[in-house]
Amino acid sequence: MGVFIARRFPKHARWNDDDTALLAPDGSAMTLTEAAELGSNITATGTAYTGSGYFVGVLVSAYSGGPQTIVARDSTDASGRILATFTVSSVGTYRVDGDWSTPGSGGGLRIKIDAGVHLTISGGTSRTVAAIVEA
C-alpha cells in the first residue's frame, strides 16, 4: 500500500518506477496535501480494501475500452451498502464528492466504512483500479 494525494490529481499523473512518489505529467514529484491509503490494485470485480476507515474514492491507473462502471460497496463482497457508482472513461482519481464521472473532481468529503471496499466492475476490456481510503 502506498500514500496518495487526495485533493487535486492531474489527469495524467503517474507513480515513479519504484512506486514511492506520485509524479505530475512534467515528471516533478507532487506534494501531499491530504494523506490516504491505496487499497489493493484489482483488475476485475473484487475486494479492494479490507477494514474500517473512510472511503475517499477510486484511483484508475490503467484503462482500456469503455466507459466502465465501478460500484463501490462497504463490504468484502457484493452485498454491502452502495457507497458510490462511478462511470469511468480514463485513468485518474474519481472521488465520492465529485460528479462520479470526471477524474479529479471533488474536494474533501469521505464516507465512513465498516467492513472494507468491494468493487463491482462492468464494461470495457481492462482496467487497474484501487480504492482510496483513510484509515
Largest sheet composition: 6 strands, antiparallel
Mean pLDDT: 82
Silhouette: globular
Classify the beta-strand content into a percent band: over 45%
What's the helical proportion of residues?
under 10%
* Rg computed from alpha carbons, rounded to a whole number of angstroms: 13 Å
Q: Which residue ranges are poorly predicted, with pLDDT under 50 across at least 5 consecutive positions?
A: 1-12
How far apart the termini lie comes to 12 Å
Helix count equals 0
Counting DSSP E segments of at least 2 residues, the number of strands comes to: 12
Order of helices and strands: EEEEEEEEEEEE
Class computed from helices, strands and strand pairing: mainly beta
How would you explain this protein's 3D organization?
The chain has 135 residues and is mainly β. 0% of the residues lie in helices and 49% in strands. The protein has no helices and twelve strands. Strands 1, 4, 6, 9, 10 and 12 form a six-stranded antiparallel beta sheet that branches.
Short description:
This protein has no helices and twelve strands. By secondary structure, it is an all-beta fold. It is globular, with a radius of gyration of 13 Å.
